[in-house]
Amino acid sequence: MSVYDQIAEAKAASVGEIEKTGDLESLKAIEPMLFGKKSTLGGLKRLMGEVDAQERADVGQALNEAQLFVREAHEAAKKKFELSDRRAQLETERLDLTESLHVANRGHLHLVTQTMERLEDVFVGMGFTVSEGPQAETDWYNFEALNLPAAHPARSMFDTLYLDLGDRTEIGDGEGGEATNILLRTHTSPVQVRVMESTAPPIYTVCPGRVFRRDTADASHMPVFHQIEGLVVDRGISLADLAGTLNEFTAAYFGGAISSRLRPSYFPFTEPSAEFDITCVICEGDGCQTCQRTGWIELGGCGMVHPNVLANCGVDSEEWTGFAFGFGIDRLALMRYGIKDLRDMYTNDVRFLEQF
Amino acid sequence: MKVLLSWLREFAPIEGDPYELADHMSDLGMAVEETRILNPLEGVVVARVADLRPHPKADRIQLVDVEIENGDPMQVCCGAFNMSVGDLIPFATIGTVMPDGMEISQREMRGEMSNGMCCSAAELGLGSDHDGIMILPEHLETGAPLMQELGLVGDILWDLEINPNRPDAMSVAGVARDLAARLDVPFEIPEWTVPSSGAAEDLASIQIDDGVLCPRFTGRVLRGVTVGKSPLWMQMRLTLLGMRPINSVVDVSNYVMLELGTPNHTYDLSLLPNGHIGVRRASDGESITTLDDQERMLQPNDGLIVNEADEPIGIAGVMGGASTEISDTTDSVLVELACWEPRSIARTSQRLGLRSEASARFERGTDWQINVTAVQRFCHLLNEVTPGGIEIVGEVLDVAGTTPDSISVPVRTSRISMLLGRDFSSEEIRNLLTPIGFDVENTDSQDVQLVTIPSFRPDTETETDIAEEVARHYGYGKLGATVPRSPDAGHLSPQQKLRRVIRQVMTGAGLIEAMPNPFLAPDDITKAALIVEEPVRLLNPLAVEESVLRPSLLPGLLTAVAYNYSHRNMGAKLFETGPVFEASEDSSGLPLETEHLAALISNADAFAATSLLKDLASTLKLEFQLTNVDGLAGLHPTRGAKINIGDTEVGSLGEVDPAVLRSYEIEDRCAWLNLRLDLVIEAAISVEGVSYQPVSTFPSSDVDLAFAVGEQVQASEIEMTLRKAAGEELQSLHLFDVFRSGQLDEGVRSLAFSMRLQAKDKTLTDEEVGVVRQRCIEAVESAHPASLRA
Ligand SMILES: [Zn+2]
């Protein structure tokens, strides 16, 4: 048998061994037989000494080629076994991902809080700060400083809850017959007064918070509800600035299709005073049942801060002017989701609260 | 205030699309709530009541035969009983579509056929009177279409919302004045003249004792007055504006009030001794029987009208007295047109519960300068509507009290322009103000004009008030829109940001934010086992169940969880942030108001609360110390702890007392966490920005130690000892296992801690780790009744 036949035979034998293996383990077991000095082909290295010098190069090449062939065959077999192992492994790991047992466990902020935060964020973006104050207030902060002295007829616009301070309860001057001492704020305007008293202008702030009225709960009224008011005091502030600021807010909060307008109105703490309407968010101005076919819905009240209010807060109304506005937060929340009854927001039923 | 186009047009030639006119009125501050074009109401005809009979099977309806043309009467079933045989009534024939959209059809009611409907004024949209079928004047033609017969087709009715600062707009003439100015058409109140004879001074006299109460009292004597029906046109206008026609004298009185905004009153002159009328304030103990035959007790500030004997004969501006009331036998009348102090009228009418169209006008302030015109109008109208006319005696009686001074305000064009954000010229301002009754004069200064305020605008007093008038008539919408910018960036305060973070921790832990009622019933406090010496009470609560301001968030959250349990929402996890109230001796009188955070987790033990606290601590980088305390108010007596940050107590946690849960019918355990949010936020702010520890690059070593510890020792105390003993190499420490078992001594449980040690500058050797370990063991064993478990 020629040298070349021996090499061919050894190569065939090695490949035959590889073909006989069925998995990575058995392939590993025959590796000594395939590679190295003691392998079938490795053993033929000795033949190099037995051939002529001029033939040695050819034999050497034949041996190398045979070894390369075996190595490739081994590599292919290894790859094949690895792939099938992986397949088998993956098959055993198959999951039905719809079998999850987890029950979602994240809470929810109250709809009113979410609405309040959204409003705050819009105003912060417009350069405002957020101011807060106590819910129980003195008559001064809630009424008198706001140009609503005792027995002012417009006080009847606010059904007020007063606190019983025992023998410290002060009864009013007899004009209205009501107590004038401590009350639950009927609007967040007292915060505006506190800000003006404690901060030198320029002032750009909003006052969100809880307010109270002596009102029986029904689908559109609650004795406890939430408001946000805004206050700007600066040099040269005008009614046009109020209109522009409300426009900017309306577009930022409701989107570009919604705009705002002012209509003359009356509030004791502003002069000139206005109601502000926004384009009906339901019909976007075309007219529908919600807006009584006018295309507008009334959002809140606003106006130029009354000079008496500025004076009461120690602000010189010749040097500084300002505007204020306010509207209900609960009604905005209601509108956004089409909630029919305000009371639903306050039952604290988790099936309601989880939806927001 | 409702106004009718045809009536407005008696003062100004107002024309235009009804809805455009409505927009103008809204834009002038008289918000239009409804615009109604009076339709022909096809199918509604004038019918005569031919017969009335009881319904054989129903008491609440009767059978009516109506005639609309010569022929057989038609039977209808009707629920009203106010008509008599022979009356003319509006009748909706079969097929008529009513203003509310209902279609009239033939119906059977308890076995009797009904072939149409007898209508009330309200059903026809002609007024607010629902109380009975509208009785029509006798001269109408039976069978004729109603609206044509009433002369109403095509007229326009607007319902306006008038602000309290617009007494002038509480009248048809006032609305016409405003609208005419906007439309740039002339406006005029006619001078009504009436022929008179004789001298009134001999018949009547007026004396004002309190000129502040009564700035002006104008009267006139009329003779030959007969009380009858007013004409149809007058009845219709009153009805459409929401008043019910009564008789000619009352109708004229109401008509003048609606037209000119001047309430007025009539006295039977023969019941006034010597025709004398006085005006003064009431004194204590006085009373009067008013027109409605009620005896009314008076108070010292009430305005009174008295007779010659100084006896009350009327409550000024509120209601007349029964003793001088007009009747069928009346012949001579004194008509009163007075002005009253608004506050006095407001107080008296409110106290007596007698608010009326008249008091509403007096409260806002009526125009004292229109008195004579209004008296003339009254005489003119009564003369017109009384068959054969009346005799008007002598001159107008006119007595002044303290009439308001006319106010003139210097108005700077520059200031108006600045306030409104648009450059006005002085001429523009003058042209806007003059048509609505303001008198504008030049002054020495180019910038300043002197504006005299008309008597019908008592609300207007200052330059700023004038600015509103300028803006109103120029148009708010035309002023433009500019956006001022704060010199500073907008931002939330650190407190506000942290409050949001804390709420996010709560929702991240699966809690839902609730907003329970902050008002409690007095016994809610004891029901929740809270101890509050003096809760803050409301002086005028709507109900006793809502008469106390919450001293804690616990009762509200318990109520909320109980509500959820009763609706099968077991396991509700709720939280709330908000103030609680505590009585205070503060000189301001304000109660102490502190912001709390509370969580109530149902179907969970106290550890649900400690977990929540740990989540908060981790987010806020705060260390809370717990001290087990038995019997905290409202809490499970042996499952409660108070929470400290350093020396400051900031709250408590644990489980709600089982007895409390029973009283709320909550059948599961409930974990409870309550924190002083203000204190927690301040503490969190104080640790913000504390510098970080660089992460060590050297390997760490873990040491686990389990101790048998006496039950009297809190786990946190062992932890503290370990922390101190481990020293600066301690990277982390936590309790990882607790168990109680019979294998341990009695009164002892096993606490296993895991510690990770790491040095900043080197790899700790086994020996070094061993030293720390030993130090920890010795520290715990020497400080506490505890021993290392093998
Ligand atoms: Zn709409």
**CATH fold descriptor of the largest domain in chain B:** Phenylalanyl-tRNA Synthetase, Chain B, domain 3
What ligand species are in this complex?
Answer: zinc ion
CATH fold-type name of the largest domain in chain A: BirA Bifunctional Protein, domain 2
Rounded average pLDDT of chain B: 93
Order of helices and strands of chain A: HHHHHEEHEEHEEHEEEHEHH
Level-1 CATH class name of the largest domain in chain A: Alpha Beta
Radius of gyration of chain B: 41 Å
Structural class by helix and strand composition of chain B: alpha+beta
- Count of domain modules of chain A: 2
Number of spatially distinct domains of chain B: 6
Largest sheet of chain A: 7 strands, mixed
What form of chain A results from the Cα inertia axes? rod-shaped
Description:
In chain A, 37% of the residues lie in helices and 19% in strands. By secondary structure, chain A is of the alpha+beta class. Chain A folds into two domains: 3-94; 111-136 and 185-353, BirA Bifunctional Protein, domain 2. In chain A, the strands form two sheets. Chain A has a seven-stranded mixed beta sheet, with helices on both faces. In chain A, strands 2-4 form a two-stranded antiparallel sheet. Residues 172-180 of chain A have low confidence and may be disordered. The longest helix of chain B is centred in the C-terminal third of the chain and has 18 residues, at 766-783. In chain B, the strands form ten sheets. Chain B has a seven-stranded mixed beta sheet with strand order 25-29-30-34-33-32-31. Chain B has a five-stranded antiparallel beta sheet with strand order 5-4-3-6-9. Chain B folds into six domains: 2-38 and 157-183, Phenylalanyl-tRNA Synthetase, Chain B, domain 1 (2-Layer Sandwich); 44-153, Beta Barrel (OB fold (Dihydrolipoamide Acetyltransferase, E2P)), CATH 2.40.50; 205-400, Phenylalanyl-trna Synthetase, Chain B, domain 3 (Phenylalanyl-tRNA Synthetase, Chain B, domain 3); 408-476, Phenylalanyl-tRNA Synthetase, Chain B, domain 1, CATH 3.30.56; 494-687, 2-Layer Sandwich (BirA Bifunctional Protein, domain 2); 701-788, Alpha-Beta Plaits, CATH 3.30.70.380. Chain B is built from 20 helices and 38 strands. In chain B, α13 packs across α16. β3 (163-164) of chain A pairs antiparallel with β27 of chain B, so a sheet runs across the interface. Bound molecules: zinc ion (ZN). Zinc ion is lined by residues 280, 282-283, 287-288, 290-291, 295 of chain A.
